[in-house]
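Our preliminary data section would be incomplete without showing what the modeling component actually yields. Below, a chain of 496 amino acids is followed by its predicted structure, encoded as tokens that our downstream tools consume directly.
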Amino acid sequence: MSDGGADREHRASADPGDAQGATGEELAFAGVRGVLAALSRRELSARELVATLLARIERIDGELGAFRCVFAERALAEAEQADARRAAGDERPLLGLPVAIKDDQDVAGERTTRGTLAVTRPAARDSELVRRLRAAGAVVVGKTNVPELTAIGATESLGFGVTRNPWERERTPGGSSGGSAAAVAAGLVPAATASDGAGSIRIPAACCHLVGLKPARGLVPTAPAENPWNGLIVYGFLTRTVADTALLLDAVAERSPDGSRRKWSEAVAERAPRLRIAVSTRPQLPALVDASVRDAVERVADELRQLGHTVDRADPPYGLLALPAIVRYLRGIADDAAALDLPARLQRRTRGFVRLGRAVSDRVLDRALAHAAPSRERFDEFFSRYDLLITPTVARPPVAATEWEGTGALRTLFAMGQVYPFTIAWNHLDLPALALPAGIAGDGLPRSVQLVAPRGAEALLMRVGAEIEAALGLADPPRPPLAEDGVAARVRAARG
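Predicted structure:
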């Protein structure tokens, strides 16, 4: 996993100072809210915090492969600037917060590889999302791994290797935001940016016991990307709790919640009204849903009934909704490939996706895009009867980290449909969806539920998500065994 100077910077020594040891372990899992509180109370400096996390990355990430490159020296310098600003009375909302950036988003002076060796030119400037994070005081620690052209739901590529799940290193953290998910789940950073064109925020969230909000378009800026993947892709974050996501939205969101002037963190903290909630385990694509996944959904449904909500079984009117979404997805991959510096360097499977995408004519694409409007009308009727929908996020526990390594495009596409049949329709319809942890099953792996709402109802999603967190005792989430340098994972594996 080398990237020239950036990787050498990764290896630069970082003195963790006084924040090492047990304190460092607690900081690693304090989340956005906990870290910001500690910084605000002057319990530690931003430099101490960043140095502690850099040392942790050095110790753990060789086993995970979450990061493509780490900016150790620059991150320490940015942390020192944050400390100076705080001492001068600066009150930026994310001042000193370490974050990681998914490698499909620009960081000035660095390649935005999108998981391929076909990109050679560095980005001229930060993406708008990165700019807003920096303006709010965040410290950029590095860029996280993605599969090539962010095309699949596992994070592995010939150029940058395999990213592994902190809950079980032989499993995938999902994709395409798998590097970001692994970094947050393992306590390497409190938060990381992510993107979602067919489930790429929610799938890694589900695989790694994280919160992942796929907003509707326009909430989180995607510039300089214009209409990525024909409008399927949106940007967001991976965090440990709903409250953490809300704090990040406070700093970067294009609009306030519910048309008000309130902060997202204020709106999300409010108690949700009693709601009519539909629950369904019917997938959007033909697939078998694991019994433990169904159990997790039913458990959450029962908790919502206990909280006073009306919860009924009701299947959404999917129809063939996933097919035009897949058309948009394939054409998006082909369009991305056409803009590469050296497309001949693409790996075999990705070239297969590109060929499929090139077969999508402008006319076929236009028909797929036109399909969304009448489909939204059907779902408007569904959401006139229900305030929210609950489904599984994924159909089964995380697959092997190398499950699709070396497989062709069509085989991989079919396999992904079997594992991830609950996500892509919401991109096509541009409806907000939230992946929420539902606890750790008997196999030691995370389970997740997905909450879906009408457009503009992200705050309601998050309020209910926070209620579920509290009801399940997950406001302080469990820590994965790989957080212990992989020792617990190896012991568990040895015991069979």
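The chain has one domain: 5-494. DSSP finds 18 helices and 13 strands in the chain. Preliminary results of this kind motivate Aim 1 of the renewal.
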